[in-house]
Design goal:
202 residues, 70% helix, 0% strand
Length: 202
């Protein structure tokens, strides 16, 4: 409730018209992030080529691509073949909207957009990493690798690196304050863009 009152009471640079734009645009950004994740293994297709139904291959019109609304109106099915298109895109569109709402409720001022960009970048990396983890798990199963031992090793290494990075980030943040947070966000956004560009030019 405090967060809602804070959002309702914002003025000038932190007014309702300031945080409304990232919230309204977030489903469209989430839709684009879904395209980035789904096409990551298809070089060039992120910026080239139109969206198609994954089942029948028919090119989709703009009316088929309105975030959330098209999926709800068509009941999660392709308008051409009637087959289910899954819940991946509306799911990531809702997640992107959740990131924007969380940022608007937690942060005000010029850092709002930076916070949204950071959250959307982390969302993209988290979903893409989860898909990669699924592929690794299937590979381990096919190769009959000891999944408990492999998971323990991967988990320990990831935890050690994350814990050190978190400790280092806290130290830097204590020294430089919000500027350190902004720099960290820019670095993560840069990493995400680098991954996307690498997939596009490979």
């Amino acid at each position: 409730m405090k967060a809602l009152r804070r959002m309702a009471g914002m003025t000038s640079v932190t007014g309702w018209d300031y945080w409304l734009w990232p919230v309204l645009l977030s489903p469209f950004i989430g839709s684009f992030l879904g395209v980035v994740i789904a096409r990551a293994q298809e070089p060039g297709s992120i910026v080239a080529g139109r969206s198609r139904c994954p089942e029948c291959g028919t090119r989709l019109s703009p009316l088929d691509l309105v975030p959330l609304l098209s999926w709800l109106f068509l009941r999660g099915r392709c308008r051409h073949c009637g087959k289910s298109v899954g819940a991946f895109y509306p799911g990531i569109e809702l997640a992107a909207a959740g990131v924007a709402l969380w940022a608007a409720a937690s942060i005000s001022g010029t850092l709002l957009w930076a916070s949204c960009l950071l959250g959307w970048t982390l969302l993209t990396l988290a979903v893409a990493t989860s898909i990669d983890a699924l592929a690794v798990g299937l590979s381990f199963a096919l190769l009959k690798v000891n999944i408990l031992l492999a998971s323990a090793i991967i988990g320990l290494v990831a935890f050690a690196v994350t814990a050190f990075s978190f400790w280092l980030g806290r130290k830097v943040s204590a020294l430089f304050g919000r500027w350190a947070q902004l720099a960290g966000g820019i670095i993560l956004i840069g990493i995400g863009l680098r991954i996307v560009i690498m997939h596009m030019v490979e």
